[in-house]
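for the record, two folds in this file. i put them one after another cuz i was lazy. first one right below, seq on top, structure tokens after. the second one comes after a little note so u can tell where it starts
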Amino acid sequence: MWISVVLGIILLAIGALSLVAVSALSGDPEIDAASAALPPMGVMWVLMLISAALVVAQLILVIRIPRRQAGTRTAIIWLFVVSAAVGVVAAVLTTDYVSNGISLLLSVLLVGLLLTDGAKRYFAS
């Protein structure tokens, strides 16, 4: 999960810079043509803020893993369920199926791993 937190922070920085650049160059015909397929900037910023909140929640939960509390496991499961749902919405809105599909696949994989007996035993200690 630490790798996911670091990648999330990097992707948030790149995404925010991209949105700022598109906003700054909004009068350029090439930029307008390229961004015509995207949802309005307000929607893109809301998706960015939701992603930032998910990364912060993930950071808090990854710090809590060594405590081995069952509540932490449950919270991580819900975090990845919400993350998968946001990924599906983002894929539909932005038509970026590859990266959002990978995110969805990883979320499903992690939820599946956290539902195993080994994970239940680890977090029950």
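(here's the note) second protein begins now
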Amino acid sequence: MAQRTILWLCIAAAAATGIAVELMLGQISQRRESWDASSYWSVGLPLMLVAALLFGFLARRAPVAIGCAPFAGQLAAMAAKTAGGGMILPGVLLLAGLSLSGIAAAYAGAFLARRLL
């Protein structure tokens, strides 16, 4: 039971990271979507990848769900901010592609946890 709780907490925290990135970078850059700001690529995306790595390390299971969670959280926050908007499909496609890097980071975290612990 504790393992399942840790997994869900890690997924929720990873999604919260994506929400925070979208809201904070959007506010700081005054852009409608955070990925329009140059700081998204230098700060936001690396932050979400570090979160996927960390939560993959902590959970050691479900790296696909953990790796996708920050990008799903970002998409949910973006859709809520823009009321869906006409560009939601390109946003989904972009974040689906970027989530592959999150999945790789979560797999790396799970691998490191198995090797070190």
